[in-house]
Design goal:
Blueprint: H1 2-22, H2 24-60, E1 66-71, E2 81-82, E3 87-89, H3 94-103, E4 107-122, E5 125-134, H4 138-141, E6 146-149, H5 154-158, E7 163-166, H6 168-175, E8 184-187, E9 191-199, E10 220-224, H7 225-232, E11 235-240, E12 243-248, E13 253-258, H8 264-276, E14 284-287, H9 289-332, H10 334-342, H11 347-384, H12 392-418, H13 422-427
Parallel strand pairs: 3-12, 5-10, 7-9
Antiparallel strand pairs: 1-13, 1-14, 2-3, 4-5, 4-8, 4-13, 6-9, 7-10, 8-9, 11-12
Helix pairs in contact: 1-11, 2-9, 2-11, 2-12, 9-12, 11-12
């Protein structure tokens, strides 16, 4: 009985494949909807996953256990300007830094930072850089790596040394092929800093959160915070289009690293209450990278659903194409169906024959679509420079939906063929 069933099935498969191969062009056009549907699902989700992973990496680089507070310039109508010196004072202070260190018990590392734009020069090489005064803990907190030389050390802070660590872009554009280690870069018109290290390249980040602007760490000149305060001072003077501005800013940012993720939100809440007492103008903003990461992940799930649903429409169109062709095939093969029924074929045999043909078309469309979908993201990444990540679940989902849509689309034509009256089928020829 088993051997007879196997022979019957083998005959059905051979007949179905022969029917499909007899009309190669029509069969190819039939499966084209599934091919592009499967490929589009994989490609769209690969591009979305690549963009999401890059965004999440940028957020994670801020530190999941960190709370970041930055100085923000208050609104124009609340800015207290000293009209004798035309000086604007705002933002975090060294007193705030001391309060944070003494008050927040969950903090394991507190890293202050001050930044300002300036011109960097060495010989004929010149470019606009970002001067960053930091504590040595800045480097591990931001997961920075050194390509050449060394990081800043506590001895540089305590000795108020004129040393710096520069970004890769500064090393290339300012020193123009020369090794910068041991050479001095001029900052502004008066200050000179000896280069002791060059940072490894870090992909520039987009603006993250309400207060974290886009950053390119490769254009940084990092100096000891004590040297920054001693040599440059807290007062920054700017001349722009004939105007003259003086701003007093002691600290641009303080990063608080806490013991665990569970302490992050409680620490941020305590920090908000602590600073609000001394900053009634709210000239600071707190950013929690953990919240940003969770929001990015939630957004990515919604984005994946929208993209998947959009691409699934292509699969539905492909399924409709298969149904149309199979219905046309039923009309064309009315005589064949009538003869087979007259010779004793059961309705289940007719249904099985057409379902095997539909299955063959679905498998072909799904297989070609998978091949195209696996190759296309690499081409997109090569041409656009964007990162693409193919996830296993996108392949499984695309293949399963495409195959299911193809099979379901063949059920109705198969039932229509099986329900034909043999006499009427032979008479209509």
């Amino acid at each position: 009985m088993t051997s007879r069933l196997m022979v019957r099935w083998a005959g059905m498969v051979r007949m179905s494949i022969r029917s499909v191969m007899m009309h190669k062009l029509r069969s190819f056009l039939t499966i084209l909807g599934l091919v592009f549907g499967v490929a589009s699902v994989i490609v769209m989700l690969a591009v979305a996953e690549g963009a999401s992973q890059e965004s999440q990496r940028q957020i994670a680089s801020l530190g999941i256990n960190n709370v970041i507070v930055r100085s923000t310039k208050p609104a124009a109508d609340t800015q207290p300007i000293n009209f004798r010196s035309f000086e604007l004072s705002y933002g975090l202070t060294y007193y705030d830094l001391r309060r944070i260190r003494e008050t927040l018990e969950t903090a394991v590392r507190v890293t202050p930072l001050r930044e300002f734009p300036e011109e960097g020069r060495y010989g004929e090489g010149v470019m606009d850089v970002r001067v960053v005064g930091v504590h040595p803990s800045y480097f591990p907190t931001n997961r920075l790596e050194v390509a050449r030389g060394r990081f800043l050390e506590l001895a540089d802070m305590e000795g108020v040394r004129n040393v710096c660590v520069i970004g890769e872009t500064v090393a290339i554009d300012v020193f123009r092929g020369l090794s910068p280690i041991g050479k001095s870069i001029q900052i502004g018109n008066e200050q000179f800093f000896r280069v002791v290290g060059v940072l490894k390249y870090r992909t520039p980040s987009a603006g993250i959160g309400s207060s974290l602007a886009a950053q390119d760490l490769n254009r940084d000149v990092v100096i000891p915070l004590t040297t920054d305060r001693s040599r440059i001072g807290d007062l920054l003077e700017k001349r722009e289009q004939g105007s003259f501005k003086r701003e007093r800013l002691e600290l641009s940012q303080v990063t608080i690293e806490v013991r665990s993720k569970e302490d992050v939100k409680a620490t941020a809440s305590a920090l908000q209450g602590l600073l609000a007492k001394y900053h009634p103008r709210q000239d600071f903003a707190i950013t929690i990278p953990l919240d940003l990461l969770e929001q990015a992940q939630a957004t990515q799930r919604i984005f994946n659903f929208v993209l998947g649903a959009t691409a699934a429409i292509s699969l539905l169109v492909g399924g409709i194409g298969i149904m149309n062709i199979m219905l046309a095939s039923v009309s064309e093969r009315t005589r064949e169906i009538g003869i087979r029924r007259a010779l004793g074929a059961r309705q289940s045999d007719i249904v099985l024959q057409f379902l095997v043909e539909t299955t063959t078309l679905s498998l072909l469309g799904t297989g070609i679509g998978l091949c195209l979908g696996l190759g296309a993201p690499r081409l997109v990444a090569y041409l656009s420079g964007m990162e693409t990540i193919i996830t296993p679940w996108s392949i499984i989902a695309a293949a399963a939906v495409a195959f299911s849509v193809g099979i379901v689309s063949g059920i109705y034509p198969a039932r229509q063929a099986a329900r034909m009256d043999p006499i009427e089928a032979l008479r209509s020829v």
